[in-house]
Each structure stands twice: as C-alpha cells, then as structure tokens.
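Worked problem 6 (solution included).
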Amino acid sequence: MYNLLKGKRGIIFGALDESSIAWKVALQAHEEGAVFTLSNAPIAMRMGKINELAATCNNAVIIPADATSMEELANVLTKSMEVLGGKIDFVLHSIGMSPNVRKKIHYTQSNYDNYMKSMDVSAISLHKLLQAAMQLDAISEWGSVVALTYIAAQRVFPDYNDMADAKALMESITRSFGYHYGVKNKVRINTISQSPTRTTAGSGVSGFDAFFTYADKLSPLGNASAESCANYCISMFSDLTRMVTMQNLFHDGGFSFTGVSEALIEEMSKEKE
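Solution. The predicted structure is:
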C-alpha cells in the first residue's frame, strides 16, 4: 500500500457483497489510509453483507439511503461530515437498478414506469447527490467523485436494455456537473467504464457468461478484474489525478478500442471447419 488516501474522508455508495466493485473499493480505500461511511438502499442492505464490510473497515458507519431521495442523500452527506469530522474528499457512486432487466422485459417493449425508475436510480441519483453536496458545501476543494459506468452507453449491447440509456445519461451528468462543480470548488467528477465483471448486478444481465468470454478474448489485456477497478478508483480519489475531470475513463483491458482480435478470428475459423 502507498497511503494514497491517508487523511482523506469519503462516502462509498453501493457495496452489497464481496463480489461488488464498491466492496473492493472500500477495502482498498481502508488499506490506503482513508476513513469513510458506507451507504446503500435499505433493501440492498438486507440482502447484502454490508455490516461485515463495515467491521473490516475500522467499524465504518453505515447510513441507509434511497438514492432517489434528495432528503436522504442530504442526510448521508450531513451525517458523514459529522462522523468523519469534516468535508468529504471522495465519493464512489456505484448505484444501478433496472426493473425492466429484472423482469426480462425487452427494450422495445419497455414498461415506462420501470424505465423512469431505472433512470432515477441509476443516473439521476448522481445529479441529486451532486446537487445536495453543492448545496451543503459537503465536498472539499479538489475532491473527487467517481461513478461506475459501462460501454453500452456508447455502443449497442442488446441485453443491457434500458441500463444503456441510464449510463449514457449518467455520463452526460458527469460532464455537465463536472464543469459547474469544477468552476465552483475544483471538485472533479469522472466515470469509469469497467469491463464486464462478475458482480451480483452484472451477472443478472441475460447472456452475461457468453459476453464475458467474448470480451475477454477481444481485449488485448483480458477483462479487467473488480480488484483492478478498485485500484483505478483509488488513483482517481488520490491527489495524483487532480487535473482529471469530466472524463469517461475506459478500464477494460483495451476492449473499447479493439475491433477484432486474433483469438476471436481463430475461434470463428475453427467453427467453420
């Protein structure tokens, strides 16, 4: 460890269990010297193991919140500053949910109540969080906010459904709010576009296993692991990346810029023989 976050305070949203990226970010942030609070929706907290994570991370305080509620998000920010003893230096937004995906409703047949819920939870929650933070002056100068996204925001992945629209909206919010928060208080806001990862949420997407293998064969470095994504998040929280903001940063082993790989060509050639 390098003490990259020594003396820094943070909030980590979305840790569910050992397979979630947010869980691994929390472990790495703890190892790098940070103190932080944990937050998730009450139903997610009942389903997950967040109490175990809190105990491992120096008994981090858990603050439940519905990420679509401005009041509850403001409460997370206010209580976090009270518990941690000052303004927040970093925030991880690892929040996403799609009722249409869960109910296997095809994108072209979307239930629009479900669709709006997906947008609110998975994207607009970031806007609400940032607005609440700005109103409360909760994030310190040169603070860093990172939200997790996916390349389906730019390219078509049919089974990703309305989550692709949500991620596209979230990336737009990152750019727009990143400008305003940067001007106001030098707060930097970025998204990290991660490889397909075997998390509870990711594995719920139809055809995930087949696509995971495909992406691994296409990427020159292979799929990026959840652990390596956590490391990248830590670097974005640190002072080493102070001039990076409003960016969508691909963390995918080169998948995003590879048209085809020799491994895939060889596999497809074998199928024709």
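Discussion: The first strand starts at residue 9 and ends at 13.
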